[in-house]
Amino acid sequence: MNFLLKYCGQVDKGAAYRCFCSPERLEITRKMQQKSHRKTSYDGFCRNLDKDLVEEKLYNKDPHTIRLKVPHNEKTTINDEVFGAITFDHSVIDDQVLLKSNKFPTYHLANVVDDHLMNVSHVLRGEEWISSLPKHALLYQAFDWEVPTFAHLPLLVNPDGSKLSKRNQSVSIDEIRDEGILPLALINFCAFLGWSSPQLQQEIYTSIGAISSDFSLERISRNPAVITTNQNFAAIMLLLGTTL
After folding, report:
1. What are the tens digits of pLDDT across the range 138-186?
2. Mean pLDDT of 195-212
3. Is residue 78 within 8 Å of residue 137, measured between CB atoms?
4. Which residues does the annotation mark as catalytic?
5. pLDDT of residue 200 exceeding 50
6. Within a 10 A sphere around the Cβ of 30, how many other Cβ atoms?
7. How far is residue 42's CA from residue 56's CA, in Å, rounded to a whole number?
8. Could you tell me if 200 and 214 are in contact, meaning their C-beta atoms sit under 8 angstroms apart?
9. C-alpha distances in angstroms, 178 versus 90, 151, 230?
10. pLDDT tens per residue, range 6-59
11. Which residue in 127, 118, 131 sits closest to 153, CA to CA?
12. pTM of the entire structure?
């Protein structure tokens, strides 16, 4: 916990600010925004507090959070290996809480610091995280750290278009094994979810090494991958029977 406080202190030098708003004030502001059909976000009440007032509140040990100070009237453009260059207008980016009043970090701060300390060079995650991309990029800039390569992957969806979930029609590895599905069939099934082989005639791979040799981020699709488990497995098992 202490090392995250240290990094948040670095961000606090102009790229973040202390917010002393009470939960009650935040709730009232949120309801007013909803009533007037505006986007619900922090209104920046503490964004430019007088320095002496901040020092007084700190002296009195007033509870507070630390928020990211998103620059106004600017845009952030980030290159994604799957979706290409994505531009975010800062007007739609909230001043995200980085450190809660109990000194516990939020996901955004912990994620960026953790990835940096582990020397993460590539971040591959689901496309639902694209909205967090500008916040993370601003944090990397605030720390003066190298921004890793980002690749947001298409979602896995059911035939009806709903997002695949472990709570909805999930299948365990044990069930797949009990049905007699070969390990290589499962590997092929997963490999072709949202990815296409550069070998146009390649219908099946007979080893993980062959998949690894052909794999590249450039071949990942931007479209969701539809899961039709039984049909896919049946086709792959048939192909394996004629290949092996």
Report:
1. 999 999 999 999 999 998 887 787 877 666 655 667 777 777 777 888 8
2. 81
3. yes
4. 166
5. yes
6. 14
7. 23
8. no
9. 51, 34, 14
10. 777 666 678 999 999 999 999 999 999 999 998 899 999 999 999 999 999 999
11. 127
12. 0.81
Nearest CA to 20 out of 4, 44, 40 is that of 44
The C-alpha angle with vertex 144 and arms to 100 and 48, in degrees rounded to 5, equals 50
Buried b (16+ CB within 10 A) or exposed e, 211-220: beebeeeeeb
CB neighbourhood size of 136 (10 A): 21
The pLDDT value recorded for residue 14 is 83
Could you tell me where the beta strands, DSSP code E, fall in 69-208? 75-80, 84-89, 97-99, 122-126, 149-153, 156-157
What is the C-alpha separation between 185 and 191, in angstroms, rounded?
10
Answer yes or no: are the C-beta atoms of 30 and 85 closer than 8 Å: no
pLDDT, tens only, 210-244: 889 998 899 899 998 887 765 555 554 555 454 44
Task: Return the structure tokens found at 211.
Answer: 């998949």
For tokens 């694209």, name the residue. Answer: 130
Tokens representing residue 171 in the block: 């299948």
By residue count, the chain amounts to 244
DSSP 49: -
Question: Coil, strand or helix: which one is 75?
Answer: strand
